[in-house]
Amino acid sequence: MKTKNIIKIQYHKTAVGELILGSYANQLCLADWRYRKMRATVDTRLKKALNATYIEEDDEALALVRSQFDEYFQGERRVFDIH
């Protein structure tokens, strides 16, 4: 049985809605609104493209993304630096 790849996801509440953030191999691969009409379609497409499954777990990339989104929504950031 082949082991599937993992997309680590975190849900992040902001002043304008809740985000779903995902990283694959410690690199951002998903930043989208958690509750939207196309959520299932986007998730299915991403999982298929990367032959991966979601797991709710944190990593450095997701921590950096959350921090930068917080700064953005507080008016402290205009440019993102996400690798």
Structure explained in plain terms:
Helix content is 31%, strand content 36%. Strands 3-2-1-4 form a 4-stranded mixed beta sheet. The chain is globular. It is α+β, with helices and mostly antiparallel strands and 83 residues long. The longest helix is centred in the C-terminal third of the chain and has 14 residues, at 60-73.
Task: Summarize this structure as a short list of keywords or feature phrases.
83 residues; globular; alpha+beta; 4-stranded mixed β-sheet; 2 helices
Shape: globular
Chain-averaged pLDDT: 93
Largest beta-sheet characterization: 4 strands, mixed
Helical fraction: 25-40%
* DSSP strand count: 4
Query: Order of strands side by side in the largest beta sheet?
Result: 3-2-1-4
Strand content: 35-45%
**Helix-strand string:** EEEHEH
How many distinct helices? 2
| Rg for CA atoms | 13 Å
Distance between the termini: 32 Å
| Unreliable parts | none
Which structural class do you get from the secondary structure elements?
A: alpha+beta
Oligomer: single chain
Question: Short summary of the structure?
Answer:
With 83 residues, the chain is an alpha+beta fold.
Give the arrangement of secondary structure elements.
Blueprint: E1 5-14, E2 17-24, E3 27-33, H1 39-50, E4 52-56, H2 60-73
Parallel strand pairs: 1-4
Antiparallel strand pairs: 1-2, 2-3
